[in-house]
Amino acid sequence: MAYGAQLVADDRVLLTLHDGSVVARPPKATAGLIEARGLGILHAENTAQAAVCAIVDLDRLADGRLPAQSAETILGLDLPVIHRVEATHFAPALLQYLKCGALNPDA
Question: Which InterPro entries match (predicted)?
Fold first, then answer.
């Protein structure tokens, strides 16, 4: 959120299919709340819903400088999977990806 992203939900999110897109919504009980380690549960501005355009897997490191593209199927739709990069540019690069996409070398 420090880079301009909007909170949809923290920890749990409701996913539905709407007009050919996967849509994320917060559960009513936790809408507008986010946990900050060491500070507790914080209030935050949130959006009621957002289209899901990618999956970011923070548990797995990206392989190499130009990793192979991968996808995962959610509610019948294939979404690209982005793996974590251990570098200071990861968050701003991820935002650039979300704004403009990436070149698919296989296309």
Answer: P-loop_NTPase
Give the pairing of strands 21-25 and 14-18: antiparallel
Tens place of pLDDT for every residue, the chain, 107 residues? 877 789 999 989 999 999 999 999 999 999 999 999 999 999 999 999 999 999 999 999 998 888 888 999 999 999 999 999 999 999 999 999 999 988 877 76
C-alpha–C-alpha distance, residues 52 and 16, integer Å: 10
Q: Residue 99, SS3?
A: helix
- Rounded to whole angstroms, how far apart are CA atoms 3 and 6? 9
Distance of CA 59 to the CA centre of its chain: 13
Full strand arrangement of the beta sheet holding 55-61:
55-61, 77-84, 70-74
